[in-house]
Design goal:
This protein is α+β, with helices and mostly antiparallel strands. It has 3 helices and 5 strands; from the N terminus they run αββααβββ. It has one domain. Helix 1 packs across helix 2. The longest helix has 44 residues.
């Protein structure tokens, strides 16, 4: 009787450990993807042009376009070989600028957790979004 309880407890502990390892692996992959999105957003925010300052005494402001952001993100991701680091890597269509002053970058990839690959053979889709604001200072 005790042997059955010990065996059951051991199986339960191994099952819990495999779930924790899988969740941790997906979390780490998400953090790597988020770090990549942060770098791409910062790179895109640095591609600003000066906005029109003909509207009175206000100083010129930074201006971003979706086309420049997309081009900068593509160049940055190619330079750091992002497609080689993540499986199923894509840049989301949400990448761009909504207000003309900040760069929004959304990246997607697939994470394959260890030990629980039988349960999720296609992997788990992860997404990371980062926003960087272009700012002029003296």
């Amino acid at each position: 009787m005790i042997l059955v309880l010990i065996l059951g407890y051991t199986v339960l502990c191994l099952l819990i450990a495999s779930v924790v390892i899988g969740v941790s692996a997906v979390y780490v992959e998400h953090k790597k993807l988020l770090s990549l999105a942060d770098g791409a957003a910062q790179s895109a925010a640095d591609t600003f042009t000066l906005g029109d300052a003909a509207q009175g005494p206000s100083p010129p402001a930074a201006s971003l376009t979706t086309e420049r952001i997309t081009a900068s993100v593509g160049a940055y991701l190619h330079r750091v070989n992002a497609a080689g680091r993540f499986e199923g890597f894509t840049v989301s269509g949400a990448t761009g600028s909504e207000d003309g002053r900040s760069a929004r970058v959304t990246l997607e990839a697939v994470a394959h957790p260890p030990l629980v690959g039988i349960v999720v053979p296609g992997g788990i889709r992860i997404e990371a979004t980062s926003i960087a604001r272009a700012r002029l200072t003296r």
